[in-house]
Structure formats: structure tokens, C-alpha cells
Amino acid sequence: MPTVFPEDSVGLVSPQTLHFSEPLALACGKTLPEYQLVIETYGELNPTASNAVLICHALSGHHHAAGYHRPDERKPGWWDSCIGPGKAIDTRKFFVVALNNLGGCNGSTGPASPNPATGRIYGADFPVVTVEDWVHSQARLADRLGIRQWAAVVGGSLGGMQALQWTISYPERVRHCICIASAPKLSAQNIAFNEVARQAIISDPDFHGGHFQEQGVIPKRGLILARMVGHITYLSDDAMGEKFGRVLKTDKLNYDLNSVEFQVESYLRYQGEEFSTRFDANTYLLMTKALDYFDPAAAHDDNLTRTLAEVKADFCLMSFTTDWRFSPARSREIVDALVAAKKNVSYLEIDAPQGHDAFLMPIPRYLQAFSGYMNRISV
User: Fold this and answer.
1) Which residue pairs, CB below 8 angstroms and at least 24 apart, start in 202-207?
2) How is domain 190-289 classified at the architecture level of CATH?
3) Is 157 a catalytic residue?
4) Which of 48, 241, 273, 322 makes the best surface tag, with the fewest CB within 10 Å?
């Protein structure tokens, strides 16, 4: 009996792998001689190629943003709540492109890929990549797909940074920028959290200087700890309290320093364990460094208004009240700079208890606002 998907699902989807043979010069001074990007597309590109929307993923994201790879797949793509027929990013109207960024571990060229110069796995030898590098590779992807201008570039968190960078690097190629739960640069506290996560990985005895694959191991403990630290910052205190409180796994305290006694401990260990089975440690280091390095205003004497002076896109920014990792104040910095630069900008601060992860969740007011803005985009 054939699988019946929800009416608002894009259904079964298949990734595509695109090879790029032209070398890509990176901000770190190194060059990738060749690379591949894995993408998924949903909807149809119209005859004038004016209805294309680019989805930029966050730290642990990838190209599988909507639909299902298999009829028996338990969960759809990571942003299925927002992409599909009748959803905020309506695939009856838009041609949607989602990709796995360079340095990723879901098929695009990254640390787990073979180095053409040596024939060995890149490992720690994979060059450092930045948000700007990603945007340049995405521009080549757009060229390959015949898209001269995106109807919109959309992203949350690190994805929102990419959307913002698109308007700076390629102002003529973006009509609308949707930047959700993001920031113009990381705070010192955010950089500190990233460094703790990186040190958890680097100090794992199985890391082997980033060449763990050659040893036939993975720095599992380090990855688990990094994910646990990160996951705490993605949730609000209210969300964790409502979900777990101080609920025990058993009827009473064990008074055992090594036991898992609270439900929240069990949850974090599960999240860390699951993450360690699917994510590359070197990719985690790369992604967090890309977050740390993002600071487009640095090239303009830290003046964000001047940085955004030449952008052409219209903007929609959204933030969430309990997001302390990328607080509403950080989105307002971008809004204020855009207003000062006399750009068209809409802003919504959504009252939501879920913390930073709220941008991934089907919160009614969020989806209503998201849909309302996307419906205004002409194609």
C-alpha cells in the first residue's frame, strides 16, 4: 500500500550532488581546488527564474529541509513546518533550494571528504571556511541553477547570518532577506560557549589532532559534551522547566555521583549520544568558528549602518522573547542599522517560551507572520 504523506508535504525528495571544478579562494588565504555541494529542491522554477528561494542552514543543519527521503522515514526535513504547499514558504509558488554548506558532513565537500592533493581524508587539513565563503559558493550554485536573483534568501541563527551576508556581498541578487533569530556578530558569551564546545572535542583522546578517521575512531565523548553544552543554550529556562522540571527518572535520589537521576540529565545525554553518531567533529569545529568570525561591520569601522548602505533587498527580521543565545536585542541592532540606512525593513518580536530553537518550531504567531511576509513577495 503506497505511503500517504500529509497534503502540505512536498512528499518524497531526492538529494542532488553538484560538482564545481573552478577553484574557490577562501577568506583564510587557502583555496579549494574543487568541491561538491549537495542540495534538495522543492517546487518548480518558473520560466523567468524569478521565484527561487534559498534556504541557509544553521550549525548542525543540512540540505534535507523538507519532505521525506523514504516512505518509512519517521521525521521529515528539519524545516518541514515552514516549507511545503500552503506553508510559509509555499512550494506551489516558490522554487526552494536547500543545501549542505562547504565544510559540512552531509555530502558536501568537508573534512570527511578525500583531499584531491593527497588522496587521504582531509580531516584537520580542511581549510577554515567563513560565512562569506559560503555565500560565494552559493552564488556559484545559483549560477549553475540559472538563478540570477533570489526572490528571497532565508535563514535562522547561523543561516540568518548567511542571508544577511548575501545582501552585502551580492546586493543585486537578493530581493528579500528573511533573517530569523540571528545577530550581526556573536557576543563574547556566545564565543565562550563555542570555545567550551570545541575544547570538549579537541581534548578528547580520540580526536588525534583532527585525524581520528585514520585511526578508525571518533571523539565520541567530546562530541557528546559539545552537543550537551550547545543544547542547553538553545532552550530557555522556562522551556526546560516546563519540559523536565526536577522530575526524577526513578522514585528517589540515589546519592550516586555517577548516576543519571534527573530527566533533564537523561535528555541531554540522549541528545549528545544521538548527535555523536551523525555529526563530524571537525565540521563542528568549522561551523562554530564560522559563527565566531562573522562580523561584516568590521570592514567598515564597526559601523553596521555603513555596512548595509549599499544593500538593495527588503528585509524581514524576527526574534523570540526567550532566546538568550541570539536575543531580540541583537535583531534590533540590525533593524536599527537598516532604518538608519533608509532600507525597507519589517520586524516582529514573538512571545515564545521555547528559546533559540523556537525558529524551528510551528509556533502559530511565528508561522502567521512568516506566511504573511512571504505572501507579499511577487514572483
Assistant:
1) 202/285, 204/281, 207/281
2) Orthogonal Bundle (1.10)
3) yes
4) 48
